[in-house]
Design brief:
Layout lengths: L5 H17 E4 L3 E7 L2 E2 L7 E4 L5 E7 L3 E11 L5 E12 L2 H6 L4 H17 L4 H6 L1 H16 L4 E12 L2 H43 L2 H16 L11 H15 L13
Antiparallel strand pairs: 1-4, 2-3, 2-5, 6-7, 7-8
Helix pairs in contact: 3-5
Length: about 270
């Protein structure tokens, strides 16, 4: 090296530095779109060792990993005129690096704007109840629309998920009142069904007691026994059922009155 002339050392150093700058190493998840004299090469380069001959070559790195795109909250008016704020998340990845660079200026920004407009247009066509209860169907529809519109850019949308739906405070109160009224209605229906079944059982028991009158006397004595067991100050005077029946029959006889016709001659 010491034998080389001084004027040769500088060019050799420049050549070595240029060779080192030509060498580029790409990781497994990246591809390089190379423009040579302004024209793109047919196939994206990588991964591994690639050569980029600057300044005639210009390299653009594209990641093939799945991108998680957070869609900011969007104010949406549903079909039944309810204003809600909805946000979502979009999962996509670049399938064709050349088209992702050539067909759109910034595929990340373009996908984000397209996701926002699609979210507003799709959810604006459904009612609030469908928005709250049919998340899976709406997610599938959003994914299908986004995937179809980003396909010319070489992008594959794998999943769209609606993250949250923020309702106005007035609507939340109205929905809570509706849910409360619905539960109250169900409780009243259950209570009425219980009363109806109890009435049926009482009617059935009355038919059985009517065939065996002594059963009423036994039930009466059983009730007195249950009252006497409890710790209370109630004084009970047991009255035989036969005496009550005799008194009731006597009262019915007294109510039977024979009406005598009046003498016309006595009328003045």
């Amino acid at each position: 090296m010491n034998d080389l002339p001084i004027f040769l050392i500088t060019p050799i150093a420049i050549v070595l530095l240029y060779i080192f700058s030509v060498i580029n190493i790409l990781p497994e998840y990246e591809r390089a779109v190379i423009f040579r004299l302004g024209r793109v090469l047919l196939d994206a380069k990588g991964p591994g060792l690639i050569l980029v001959f600057r300044p005639i070559d210009r390299i653009t790195r594209v990641s093939l990993r799945t991108v998680t795109l957070d869609v900011p909250p969007q104010d949406i008016i549903t079909r039944d005129n309810v204003t809600v704020s909805v946000n979502a998340v979009v999962y996509f990845r670049v399938m064709d690096p050349n088209r992702a660079i050539l067909e759109v200026e910034n595929y990340l920004y373009a996908t984000s704007q397209l996701a926002q407009t699609t979210l507003r247009s799709v959810l604006g066509e459904v009612d609030l109840d469908d928005l709250l209860s049919e998340r899976e169907r709406l997610n599938a529809r959003l994914r299908e629309i986004l995937d179809e519109q980003t396909d010319p850019w070489g992008i594959k949308v794998s999943m769209v998920e609606i993250k949250g739906v923020d309702l106005p405070s007035e609507m939340r109160r109205a929905m809570s009142k509706q849910a409360e009224a619905e539960r109250e209605k169900r409780s009243k229906i259950i209570h009425a069904e219980g009363e109806y079944q109890a009435a049926e059982k009482l009617v059935s028991a009355a038919r059985e007691i009517a065939t065996q009158p002594i059963a009423l006397q036994l039930r009466y004595l059983q009730t007195l026994t249950e009252i006497g067991v409890e710790q209370n100050t109630t004084v009970v005077f047991p009255i035989p059922i036969d005496l009550i029946q005799a008194m009731m029959s006597q009262g019915d006889k007294q109510k039977t009155v024979t009406v005598q016709p009046r003498d016309p001659a006595g009328v003045r």
